[in-house]
Write a structure and sequence with these properties.
Layout lengths: L19 E6 L2 E3 L3 E9 L4 E6 L4 E10 L2 E8 L6 E9 L2 E2 L3 E6 L3 E3 L11 E2 L4 E6 L5 E8 L4 E7 L10 E7 L4 E5 L10 E5 L4 E9 L9 E7 L6 E3 L2 E2 L5 E6 L6 E5 L8 E4 L2 E2 L2 E2 L4 E5 L4 E3 L11 E2 L6 E6 L7 E7 L5 E6 L9 E7 L4 E6 L6 E5 L5 E9 L9 E8 L3 E5 L13 E4 L3 E11 L6 E5 L5 E5 L8 E8 L7 E10 L4 E5 L1 E8 L4 E8 L2 E6 L4 E5 L6 E2 L2 E11 L7 E5 L6 E2 L3 E4 L5 E8 L7 E4 L1 E6 L4 E5 L3 E6 L3 E5 L2 E4 L4 E9 L7 E6 L5 E2 L3 E3 L5 E8 L6 E14 L2 E16 L31 H16 L27
Parallel strand pairs: 2-9, 10-12, 11-13, 21-27, 28-30, 29-31, 38-45, 39-48, 50-59, 61-68
Antiparallel strand pairs: 1-3, 3-6, 4-7, 5-6, 7-8, 7-9, 12-19, 13-18, 14-17, 14-19, 15-16, 15-18, 20-22, 22-23, 24-27, 25-26, 30-37, 31-36, 32-35, 32-37, 33-34, 33-36, 38-40, 40-43, 41-44, 42-43, 44-45, 44-48, 46-47, 49-51, 51-55, 51-68, 52-54, 52-57, 53-55, 56-59, 57-58, 60-62, 62-66, 63-65, ...
């Protein structure tokens, strides 16, 4: 709590809060230049730095004119990667959402209106990037002077900017308004179009951009690249081997294939981009390629049937590259397998931005179909194939709609099934960006939930973090077999420098030896209906920042007693508040292990310093010691800040006894005894209190006490005349065993039943005596009405009492029969 010592009221006005960045303008810049960028949002006055996930961007200066703006001067390296760069703003008090900035090869010009038709088209030079916006029913037109035979290409970054659901349309027109090329969607850039043509004559040519449905808004921003640059769409082969130079043919450019050499970086990503280059110019974005550490085979045509299948009969891993070259084309690949040795079989097509929608089937050597897949990973096909026998098998690849052509390339990959691991931070609510960063206050701590996606193994995991800010410690609870979630705690010293880092979170398993890293996916464009994700981006490091102190700290008493299966236990939470801060603090259970339950949140109301946070255990909860964390959240007026308790051990133990309730029955308004049978399991000292719960309304039973050797306990239950009749099957017992001065609460005997009957109707009064009637013919006797069970019990009790009554020595008045049957006191327990 030292971080809160001396936290004065004067500091209250400067309380920390989370910054938010809504947009970045301009949306990009040319590599090798410097550009001034403005970040717009809230709570930005204490801006400190920008954190970049990619290399190539450097902050020259950073100023915050007010709470809503930050102006950064960026230096873009000449070799900065083209395309999307992810960034976050760090302030002295938090971290912003992830936003993007795009790097291109061309100088940037601004759209200037009015430019809504050919007569008012905005003149632009070749090979420039135009930054503009498409508002509702807006059309932007640009004009260039071109020579016959030149290539004119336009590519737009619209939806990919991640600002809004913007579906742009592009067209190239000549001076006579004839459309030479147009595009709405493209397999390479998805909902962002690409158009290209070879101009037929000297003259003026127009590039038109609009929203595909003539909608738009002030958030429909775009970066339109216009020029003579090459624009291939796919590579063949669509991949390579790490460290090995290969020659790729880039297909789809209007001037023909572009041949380019490429060497994948050893240890690099399995999915990457190759930027097309030709005649000193380059495209504004790359073509997609896949990297696998295996030699590749090229498809050999014709391979339309099993008898002519391309031969790939070698041990996995292996790759085969080919093309569905015409509509209706079929490609077959022959490969060999060992029995019962599972394999990953995948066709990469849409993942390398091919227009192919692949359908994959696997057949035995005699042609029998064994497996089939369509749209398993996105639109790509994947099969986990376990061969039934040693031998040769055939994979068959087609397009889902029977389409085909030179761009319909595929990469067929087989790899052995082995252990794999990926970590992520579970989503908090519907916003994929919510609570995906860690802001650790000086002298405080913040917890994080981590999820592990294990593949083909179930071993224990140990977690660590590389590249933490100075003064920050990372501690993660171990993740045992069968558990896929755990908690990590990050703590900062009181004198830790205010700073931020992108941290590599690592998970490792010793047996089988497996290692995995963090992957966070952020949905940047989500729209209705059903929150459809239209564009997302993925990062591989966790943003962690050391921030100013927060105005409260949480602590939880380490429980002295276990939580028993089928029981409940409160965690005692204490809040220490800074002077001047008395606002409510929401206390959240970040994660609950299997078999445990609790409310998601409880609130320390204004000025409150303590609360009890109950945790329940199911009857079959694993007998394990878990590490739990309660995290506090408070709105300081500048956004929400966080502070966690330490990792708190909570042990789940077997109950001290078992209990079963007998069925009991009574009438409304009459008492009844409910018997509970006890089965001791773990000895305990002293007395335990047993409470009967779940009684119907207007019923009550006093609590009873037991000792460890008791085998039963009896509850004297009273009912009222208006206690609801019926079968009440909700009875259970609470047993409180005291240890270390604290009650260990058991909930046992669930489903006990008390039946409450309405009273029997009163007997009719006897008729007065009368003179004997004249003899008449005998009438048949009426059949006696069957007695109720309760009346039978009464008669049996009366008969027994009469039989045991001694003969009177002298005549005496006959005693009236009792209304209550004689009963015996049950034995075995204290009353």
């Amino acid at each position: 709590m030292s971080a809160l010592a001396g936290y004065a009221l004067a500091a209250f006005a400067a309380l920390p809060g989370s910054p938010t960045v809504d947009r970045v303008l301009p949306r990009g810049g040319q590599r090798g230049t410097e550009v001034s960028v403005t970040l717009h949002g809230e709570r930005l006055a204490d801006a400190a730095e920008l954190l970049f996930f990619e290399k190539g961007l450097e902050v020259v200066s950073l100023t915050a004119p007010d709470e809503k703006q930050v102006v950064a001067k960026l230096k873009i390296a000449p070799d900065a990667p083209l395309g999307e760069h992810r960034l976050r703003l760090r302030t002295r008090t938090g971290l912003s959402e992830l936003r993007t900035f795009w790097v291109g090869p061309f100088p940037t010009v601004e759209e200037k209106g009015p430019n809504g038709d050919l007569e008012h088209a905005q003149p632009v030079e070749r090979n420039v990037t135009i930054e503009g916006v498409v508002t509702n029913e807006d059309v932007d037109v640009f004009v260039l002077e071109m020579k016959a035979g030149e290539r004119l290409t336009a590519e737009v970054e619209g939806l990919r900017l991640g600002d809004s659901l913007f579906d742009p349309f592009l067209a190239i027109l000549d001076a006579k308004r004839f459309e030479l090329a147009s595009c709405d969607d493209c397999a390479l850039t998805k909902q962002d179009p690409v158009v290209s043509c070879v101009v037929p004559a000297d003259g003026r040519y127009f590039v038109l951009i609009r929203e595909s449905s003539y909608r738009g808004s002030d958030r429909c921003l775009y970066r339109l690249h216009v020029g003579t640059f090459p624009r291939p769409l796919v590579a063949f082969p669509p991949g390579g081997k790490p460290g090995v130079e290969s020659e790729l043919t880039l297909l789809g450019d209007v001037k023909g294939p572009v041949v380019q050499k490429w060497t994948p970086e050893p240890g690099g990503p399995s999915e990457t981009w190759l930027v097309p280059e030709q005649d000193g110019g380059c495209a504004p974005s790359g073509v997609a390629v896949k990297v696998i550490n295996a030699d590749a085979t090229l498809e050999v045509e014709p391979d339309d049937d099993f008898a002519h299948a391309t031969d790939a009969t070698r041990a996995a891993p292996l790759a085969v590259d080919g093309t569905i070259g015409r509509p209706g084309d079929v490609d077959c690949i022959q490969f060999t397998c060992k029995a019962n040795l599972p394999l990953n079989v995948r066709v990469n097509a849409r993942s390398v931005r091919s227009p192919l929608d692949p359908v994959l089937t696997i057949h035995s050597a005699d042609g029998k179909q064994l497996e089939a897949s369509d749209d398993t990973i996105g639109l790509d096909s994947y099969i986990r194939f376990t061969p039934p026998a040693d031998g040769e098998y055939i994979a068959r690849i087609t397009d889902h709609l029977g389409a085909g052509g030179p761009l319909y390339v595929w990469r067929f990959v087989i790899t052995p099934v082995g252990p794999s691991l990926a970590l992520d931070v579970p989503r908090f609510g519907r916003d994929s960006q919510a609570r995906q960063t860690v802001a650790v206050p000086r002298g405080g701590r913040v917890a994080l939930t981590l999820h592990a996606g294990r593949g083909n193994f179930a071993g224990d995991l140990a977690l660590s973090a590389d590249g933490l800010p100075d003064g920050v410690k990372f501690t993660a609870a171990p993740m045992g077999k069968g558990v896929d979630t755990t908690l990590a705690l990050l703590e900062a010293t009181a004198d830790a420098p205010l700073s931020g880092r992108l941290v590599d979170v690592v998970g490792e398993c010793a047996e089988p030896k497996t290692k995995g890293h963090l992957r966070q996916r952020f949905e940047l464009v989500v729209a209705q209906p059903n929150d459809v994700n239209f564009y997302d981006t993925t990062t591989d490091r966790l943003p962690v920042a050391v921030t100013e102190e927060v105005p409260f700290a949480l602590a939880v008493d380490v429980p002295k007693i276990p939580l028993v299966q089928g029981g409940s236990q409160p965690l005692r939470v204490h809040a220490t508040r800074a002077s001047g801060f008395d606002g409510p603090i929401v206390v959240r259970m970040l994660w609950l292990p299997p078999g445990l339950g609790a409310q998601p949140t409880l609130t320390l109301e204004k000025g409150q310093g303590e609360l009890a946070y109950p945790v329940n255990a199911a009857g079959d909860a694993p007998l394990v010691t878990w590490q739990l964390v309660l995290q506090g959240e408070a709105d300081t007026g500048r956004g929400v800040v966080f502070s966690s308790c330490a990792l708190t051990p909570l042990t789940v133990a077997a109950p001290f006894l078992q209990l079963k309730l007998d069925l009991a029955a009574t009438e409304q308004g009459k008492p009844v005894q409910v018997v509970a049978h006890l089965e001791p399991a773990t000895p305990f000292e002293g007395k335990a209190t047993v409470k009967l719960h779940g009684l119907p309304p207007k019923c009550s039973a006093p609590d009873r006490e037991i000792v460890a050797t008791d085998t039963s306990v009896i509850f004297d239950v009273t009912t009222a005349p208006d206690t609801p009749p019926g079968k009440h099957a909700s009875l259970f017992c609470e047993v409180d065993v005291v240890k270390e001065g604290e009650p260990i609460v058991h909930f046992l005997g669930g489903g006990g039943t008390l039946r409450v009957d309405p009273p029997a109707p009163p007997k009719p009064a006897a008729a007065p005596a009368a003179a004997a009637p004249a003899p008449t013919a005998a009438k048949p006797e009426k059949k006696a009405k069957p007695l109720s069970r309760l009346e039978q019990l009464r008669q049996e009790a009366q008969q027994k009492a009469d039989a045991e009554k001694p003969a009177p020595e002298k005549p005496a008045a006959e005693k009236p029969a009792t209304d209550k049957p004689a009963t015996e006191k049950p034995g075995g327990g204290s009353r």
